[in-house]
Amino acid sequence: MRADAVARTDGSPVRAAMMIALALLLAAAGLSGVALSRLVAPADWPGLLADPAAADMSILLARQSLLPRIVVGLLAGAGLALAGVVFQNVLRNPLAEPATLGVSAGAQLALVVATLWFPSIADTLRAEGIAFLGALAAILLVAAIGWSRVLSPTRMIVAGVFVSLYAGAAAGVLVLFNQHYLTGVFLWGSGSLVQNGWDAAWTLSGRLALAAVCVVILGRPLALLVIGDEGAHALGVKVPAVRLAALALATALSASIVSAVGMIAFIGLAAPAIARAAGTRTLSAQFAAAPPIGAGLLCLTDQLVQLAPFAREIPTGAATALIGAPLLLWLLPRMRAASVPATQSVEGQARLARPVPMLVAGCAVAVLVISCALMLGRTPHGWSWFAGPELAEMLPWRWPRVLATFMAGGMLAAAGVLIQRTTSNPLGSPEILGISSGAALGLIVLLFLMPAPSPLWQLAATTAGAALAFAFILAVGARSGFAPDKLLLVGIAFGTMLSALAAVLMASGDPRMATLLGWMAGSTYAMTESRALVTALVGCLLLALLPLAARPLEILPLGVGVSHALGMRVNRTRTGLLLLTAGLTATATLTVGPLTFVGLLAPHMARLAGFQRPVAHLAASILAGASIMVAADWLGRSLIFPYQIPAGLFASFLAGPLFLFLLRRQS
């Protein structure tokens, strides 16, 4: 009876959400009519249903390309929104969607690998089949990582982010060395609704209808999960089985859409968020409201892309992100705090009784890595250990990169600790919060406004981008009491816009994109002595402030009430910590780019190794992050000499397996 009462009170928000969906659909229908009238005069529209053999070219184009494209856009948008609702409610996390669970990145990586090395398989399975296999492999890996907690919501989403970033890094390395061969892959990966017949529309309609039937069957058990696992189990729900079935359903639906139209960014995240912003609370209300919102949003965006002359070359998926992300940023301050389910923190192992010996061992490892980076390297004759005069000749080339990457890795790791502890969220990191993405967006805009900007202009642009991103984060946080999930949603929106812009620029073939990709991947090729010293000076000043954060980091996880009772001004303290985080992140991003995830990995590695108290956690994380980045830069320039892999990308491969091992060992 309680659930029925809640459903009855949810009528007005459902109507508000449906009005939003109706407005989007009507706008999409109007633009579709305009696009159709450009091909076929309205008086000749009845000819669209006539004998195909008697139709002229314009009617054939409308019948076999434009109309299927409209239908596929509606079906794909509705399906991604439906999958997003399932993912977010099953995992109790508003960040869960195909992108954050690795489905999209797995599909893209599979297509890149098949295109480069297995062209015969690519011809046999076609892009749809290869993408489906990649997406399926990614979600199976995510499930394998999170299985020890019986599909724990937090472990699943952390594993999904890990797999997504890891697959994205792998695809990024391949793209850097094969840009001319993979432009078509990026066009597909950015989401393309171009159709040549009705096959995709019929396929998607059947899969979406089957998914809707399954959702109806699973509706009541999924709704009962809202009251908690113990309460749902007491009411007879087999919680692990229901979660597994729902995840399988959402994964299959997402993979089907990705395999058909490529990676459509943001719909699976934005449509449920818009429905919640309208006030929908019950699961049934979200199932009713989110799919039409997603359908209208995707179809409307696609029609805008087709009608705008300057935007016709922009892939639809990227355009959806460019339009939808600002929409979500506008809606976030208006979202009720209760409309976003809270995330859970990741539990670590028992605290170390004596962390000092472990920290000493960490320092020894850092010294060893630095020594290897300075003295050991590849030459045309093989590996060589440099000493004496040879080392003196090589040091001017090597020590700036070692110093810069050491400081950048330490700053990213420290920023990750601050974010995760102040938000009590295991997904908190500089990359995901959005500060790194804001800096990158500033540089992208500058490069396409000025032909050859000076380093000073680049510094100003990245700083301005990071400052604007951080200012918006502060504005959203202040209105929501710094709700963790709202801050992360801001970061997801900024990151989505960055990925969309990168995809658009890569598809355009602009030669400046090669330089930009190198910086985004974490390249230190152009590091100079002066830049390294400036990075070290600013980094030391910021890191010296970390001891002042020890007490707040100890108290804030206890809750707002306890913090106030102990005399702490919570909002002011969080603002100070976020300012420190922004400074650390912006400085590191200027050095190694925005796409490393050392800020996510290093704090988790330190926590899972047993460092729980704030000071020890910060120290261990800084050592881990700095060592990872130095080792990544050293191995990246040595393993495939004379070619080099950017440090940011190589850090993903270096730290990923270790993070996976520690996550599997977590109690």
From TrEMBL:
SUPFAM superfamilies: ABC transporter involved in vitamin B12 uptake, BtuC (SSF81345). It is a multi-pass membrane protein. It comes from Aquamicrobium terrae. It comes from the Bacteria. This is Iron complex transport system permease protein. Its main location: membrane. Keywords: Cell membrane, Membrane, Transmembrane, Transmembrane helix, Transport. Signal peptide: none annotated. PANTHER family: FE(3+) DICITRATE TRANSPORT SYSTEM PERMEASE PROTEIN FECD-RELATED (PTHR30472:SF37), FERRIC ENTEROBACTIN TRANSPORT SYSTEM PERMEASE PROTEIN (PTHR30472). InterPro entries: ABC_BtuC-like, ABC_transptr_permease_BtuC. It holds the Pfam family FecCD. Belongs to the binding-protein-dependent transport system permease family. FecCD subfamily. It is found in: Cell membrane. The chain crosses the membrane at residues 66-87, 99-118, 130-150, 157-177, 208-227, 247-274, 314-332, 352-377, 397-419, 431-450, 456-475, 487-508, 528-548, 577-602, 641-663.
